[in-house]
Amino acid sequence: MATSLITIGRTGLAASRAALELTAQNIANASNADYTRRRIDQSELVTTGRIDRLQRSTLNGVTIGNVDRLGNEFTQRQVRASTSDLARIEAEIAGLRGAESALEQSGLYESLVDFEAALTLLESDPTDSALRTAAVESARQMAETFQFADFALGNARDLAEAELGAGIDTINGTASALARINLDLVGAREGTAGRAALLDARDAALRDLSQEIGIEVSFDQFGAAEVRLAAPGSPVLVSAASASTMSADITPGGPVEIRIDGAAVSPAGGNVAGRVAALADYTQRQSELDAAAAATIARANTAQAAGAALDGSPGQPLFSGTRASDITMVLSGGAGLAVAPAGSPAGSRDTGNLANLIAAFGADDGPIAGIDRTLLSLSSRIAGLDTTRDGLAMIRESAVATMLAESGVDLDTEAANLVRLQQAFDANSRVIQIATELFDTILGLG
Amino acid sequence: MMTGISNSTSAFFDRSLGQMNDLRASLERFQTQIATGVRIERGSDDPVAAARLRALTRLERRGETEAENAARLGQDLTQASNEIEGVVAILQRVRELAVAAGSDTAGASGREAIALEIEQLGEELFARSNARSITGAPLFAGTAGAPAFVRDAAGNVTYNGNGQNGTVPVAPGTQIERGVTGDQLFEFDVNGTPDSAFNVLSGLALALRGGAADPAEAAQDALAGIDAALDSATRSQTIIGTRLDWVNAIQQDQETRALDVAAQRSQIGDTDVTDAIVRLQQVLTALEASQASFTRISSLSLFNAL
User: Fold this and answer.
1) Domain-located, residue A423
2) Which of A9, A415, B204, B267 has the fewest other C-beta atoms within 10 Å?
3) Do A405 and B5 touch (CB under 8 A)?
4) Residues A162 and A256: beta-carbon distance below 8 Å
5) What value does the mean pLDDT of chain A take?
6) Secondary structure (DSSP) of B51-62
7) With a CB-CB cutoff of 8 Å, which residues 285-304 of chain A face chain B?
8) Model-level pTM?
9) Phi, psi of A338 (to 5 degrees)
10) What number of helices (H) and strands (E) belong to chain A?
């Protein structure tokens, strides 16, 4: 009987020590974002013997059971989904801000307005060489600003493309890491600390993946993850121990195609989806910028062709080029501006042709209005996305909070556990001590 | 899988950090607004206001240009007005001389002296007809280039310009004509026959020098032409005067409009400093309070009691 008491005390000691160790592990990992709080199962150990009809149970203390990870798959999925949504919006905003900086901070709109003003000023004294020179220089300035805006937009696009490439690399790296984790999970025994650590690594890899791209995950009986993109009919990205390769085909200045093992897919979330959307927007802004440059070239040159220069000769083109990247002011000097209508004599102060150019340039379908519309639609889009981002950030925050409420380490709880387990440990030692005393007493009887 | 609810320590730290970051970000935004005086740093801060600011920038730029145009037009018109004043003075002097020559008391030598003076006045008239603006453009050639009037070897003066004045845009939808053309100013009909001030003067001088059988009568006959010339000159002066008045009125309008535009710009795009400072203070207080409460709460750990 006393031997049984010692055994019970020993199992109790072992159980409290294991629980104390786990508490220490929890405390040590309190600030580890990938760690899930563990709990150790304990169960009563009772052995029941039966001889004929006589059944008898012996109390044998406690056994240490499985190491449980506290957390649930549903909240994990919500965190992944909200992470993908937020990452997509943020990546798109970052990309669009690049375009906004290129088009707005380059001062393109201001330089278009300056050119219009210089032309209007020329109307007051069309033969004044100072005003003519000012108008031509203003045209040169405007052409250079177009080129600068084009350059800045191209730079922003290059940056977004490089980021997209880096994102794809991250996905491929994480996917192959996940495939290795899947393989290890199959061999890991249920309820062990090693398996819990593998599951932590698996969930962290899935969270990393969902930051980059929206994913749909299912688990097999071993806990191995099968990953597809969150898009209908998507091929498998990770299945058991094999990971597919993701790639991005970027046409310079054109569309972007994301592929998994060569098959085209349309990413629905994450940084990758945001950058693909931003790149599509760049393509559109580029074409709008080019359209404004082309309209400037066409309208100025058409007006020049319909007029006469200061010396009475037919007007020569003001700009060469066809788009924002190659628009160049080509007039040799202010005298070449065809202010007067064609056929006017030298030195004419007729401003009929100039008035036509100003009207065409400043018209509602002209380049000034075009750039204004581009800037307005771009900044409205960003402002709209900003609002959506605020909402999604809150959703993600609450999803993470819910997840952490289940799986995060609460130091106060762990401190209370420490006290409780220490007392349990003491109590179990006391049981052994009493068993020893009992044994001594029995021996002393003899 | 087991579940349990706990008050996760790292969630508390994350949440506190996030809240303080938000407060810091809005502090920096207010600080930038106050330091730069600009409320809208980039279009996406407020797309509609940014679009209105762009429209106002264009309006402002156009207003500046139109003000410059009006000022230049005013200069040209004033100069033309001065020249026409000179023309009127010349014609009035010629009329006096013609009246004097028309009286029988003027002898041949007197008429010779008068003819000489009229010739001189004719020169001055020709010079004034070719007057130029500060920037060297002819004042009375219409939209044609200089010179406005040319004189051939025989001394006949003809108009070289055209009949179009050309206009200058000085306000949205308002174009003011530049001045008067040379033909309006110097050419007219006398009894249905086209004539010019130059012709009248040179004809009179010639008649007084003995080109006419009766110089006195010729001088009296010339009065009709001189009067017609005076008529068209004073008419032109009135036109120029009216346009100058118009330019003045437009300039006043422009000033009012420029003030309006500047006020609107400021209202839309400038930082309301008082408002921004009060909000800054508010956020500052909130940040300080949350920092203080964070330190207090985070130090409340059971471990401290063990």
Assistant:
1) yes
2) B267
3) yes
4) no
5) 90
6) HHHHHHHHHHHH
7) none
8) 0.82
9) -85, 80
10) 9, 13
